[in-house]
Design goal:
The protein is about 10% helix and about 45% strand. With about 450 residues, the chain is mainly β. Strand 7 (about 125-130) and strand 8 form a beta hairpin. The radius of gyration is 24 Å and the shape is elongated. Bound molecules: 2-acetamido-2-deoxy-beta-D-glucopyranose (9 copies). One 2-acetamido-2-deoxy-beta-D-glucopyranose binds near residues 252, 275, 276, 306 and 307.
């Protein structure tokens, strides 16, 4: 009875669009069909009703609906909405170029899941030379909204198992893993409410984009195999992006929580929670020979960082054949850090470059106008009593770095130590050289 009623509603709704070809299992519902939209869960959302497109869902984890998805995106483009329904799974098994978007909404209430066919994805993807990144799909264009209570699932387990023991930044590594969500040439893209689960590699990467915002998102990556944990599943990375906002978001992954990369400006982070991460980092930048990189104008407020390697971190590369640049005008305010190895750290010898090479070829990335205000909690004690480590490269300028209301303790003993080497001017609190720490 109920099915018949819905079918009748569809018949009525679709009849007005008789000229529009609709693929099997799909429907296009005009915005005025409030009752149909309500039944589908698409009415009464945050945004006003729109022409809404539905597509068939997958029967199992290999039932690839990527052709239907692409069809649905095209039908919803220019003012409509693609609805991916609650309790339904949509499996993507082919790479998708979605860079033609203009005024579209995607309501993700179900699960959008990628296949874990490693051979296929390693032969078919979009490649970015920056840190040899690949992705399943790319989103671009303008005025794009993705919202709902559903899940974007990277199906990462097979990738975690296969990558086990390898290292992403190893120059010889050729085992590339896809990024879960990537924008390129996107202007005005927002993502709200969804969960991003088990990305094979970085969770989000924004390339050459403007005004990207995430609100109320949950990012999680876990492995069911103790000998192959997720790696490099960063929450947020960016390259050449102006305008990046992340608010009310929770992240539990084993790498950077939030880490804008070269040429990111106007960054806003508020109410972020990070568990088990490598921290909220600016960078790394200055990795590539001869290139100027910058990160500028960031305001980071009310962040909780638990059980991590780092809390608030600024990072740049040193060594032969690296670049140069600046990290400028960054504020970290109201940051709660617990059980974290390096609660506040300026690292200009990033990654596995050894100390001698960093000393021979010091970083040429400047750090200027940096505020750390109201930073409180505890370290893990791994770096003994050191809770803040600001060590500037001799080949760079670190100036106007101001600390205030710092209340960090170490389980390794007190008083906690704040290291400042090579920083120009007064940092606002008492500090010591790394030579005189107790470690
Ligand atoms: C998955 O569903 C597709 C489409 O119905 C079907 O052809 C295929 O045999 C199914 N595969 C498995 C493993 O059940
Ligand atoms: C767990 O990961 C290891 C390392 O990749 C692999 O050898 C092993 O087969 C995996 N175990 C399972 C149950 O997949
Ligand atoms: C993005 O824009 C740049 C510059 O206009 C262009 O070179 C590049 O091909 C575009 N990328 C895509 C995926 O359209
Ligand atoms: C700070 O962020 C947490 C989430 O991590 C949130 O619960 C809390 O309400 C926020 N505090 C303020 C003052 O907004
Ligand atoms: C944070 O991570 C720890 C493991 O390090 C875990 O035991 C704990 O449940 C997590 N906290 C929450 C609130 O998920
Ligand atoms: C960053 O911007 C500078 C200056 O516009 C440019 O020279 C450099 O190539 C950019 N860096 C990257 C990694 O794109
Ligand atoms: C510093 O960045 C903030 C955004 O966080 C911006 O409002 C302010 O204008 C910037 N200051 C300067 C001097 O550029
Ligand atoms: C770093 O600071 C030095 C000294 O002020 C300056 O000459 C250089 O141009 C700065 N580098 C960048 C990339 O801003
Ligand atoms: C630390 O001590 C060594 C050896 O005495 C010295 O060469 C170096 O300049 C000192 N470093 C700082 C930052 O004071």
């Amino acid at each position: 009875m109920k099915l018949l009623a819905i079918a009748a509603l569809f018949a009525g709704a679709v009849s007005g669009l008789a000229t529009s070809h609709v693929i099997p299992g799909a429907h296009i519902i005009p915005a005025k069909e409030t009752n149909v939209l309500r039944k589908l869960g698409a009415h009464g959302q945050k945004y006003p009703d729109r022409r809404t497109v539905t597509i068939r869902s997958s029967k199992n984890d290999t039932d690839d609906i990527s052709d239907d998805f692409l069809w649905g995106i095209k039908k919803a483009n220019h003012g409509g909405r693609l609805l991916l329904q609650k309790h339904k799974k949509y499996v993507i098994g082919k790479k998708l170029d979605l860079t033609f978007l203009d005024n579209i909404e995607v309501q993700l209430d179900g699960e959008l899941k990628f296949t874990d066919d490693i051979d296929y994805w390693q032969a078919n993807n979009f490649y970015y030379s920056f840190q040899k990144s690949i992705t399943f799909w790319r989103w671009g264009g303008k005025n794009i909204k993705i919202f709902g209570h559903g899940t974007l699932n990277g199906n990462g387990q097979a990738w975690y198992d296969a990558f086990s023991g390898a290292e992403i930044l190893d120059p010889d590594n050729t085992f590339y893993r896809p990024i879960l969500f990537l924008t390129e040439n996107a202007t005005g893209i927002s993502v709200e409410g969804i969960t991003q689960l088990n990305s094979p590699c970085w969770t989000n990467f924004f390339v050459q984009s403007k005004d990207v915002s995430f609100d109320n998102v949950f990012i999680n990556a876990y492995s069911t195999n103790i000998s192959s944990l997720p790696k490099n599943t960063d929450g947020f990375d960016s390259l050449n992006v102006d305008g990046l906002s992340v608010t009310n978001t929770r992240i539990d992954i084993g790498d950077d929580c939030f880490s804008p990369k070269p040429n990111t400006s106007n960054i806003f982070v508020q109410n972020l929670w990070c568990n088990n991460t490598h921290g909220v980092s600016m960078g790394s930048i200055g990795q590539y020979a001869g290139q100027l990189d910058y990160i500028e104008h960031a305001y980071i407020e009310n962040v909780t960082l638990l059980n991590g390697q780092n809390g608030a971190r600024l990072k740049a590369w040193a060594g032969q054949d690296v670049g140069y640049g600046r990290i400028n005008n960054i504020t970290y305010r109201n940051i709660h850090i617990e059980n974290t190895d390096a609660p506040v750290v300026l690292d200009q010898c990033y990654f596995n470059v050894d100390a001698e090479e960093c000393a021979a070829y010091p970083s040429a990335v400047n750090f200027t106008n940096i505020v750390f205000d109201n930073i409180y909690g505890t370290s893990s004690g791994k770096n003994k009593k050191v809770v803040v480590d600001l060590t500037c490269s001799p080949n760079a300028v670190c100036s106007n770095i101001k600390l205030s209301n710092i209340d960090l303790t170490s389980p390794a003993g007190s008083p906690p130590e704040i290291v400042c080497d090579g920083i120009q001017g007064d940092i606002g609190v008492d500090c010591i050289s790394s030579n005189s720490t107790s470690s």
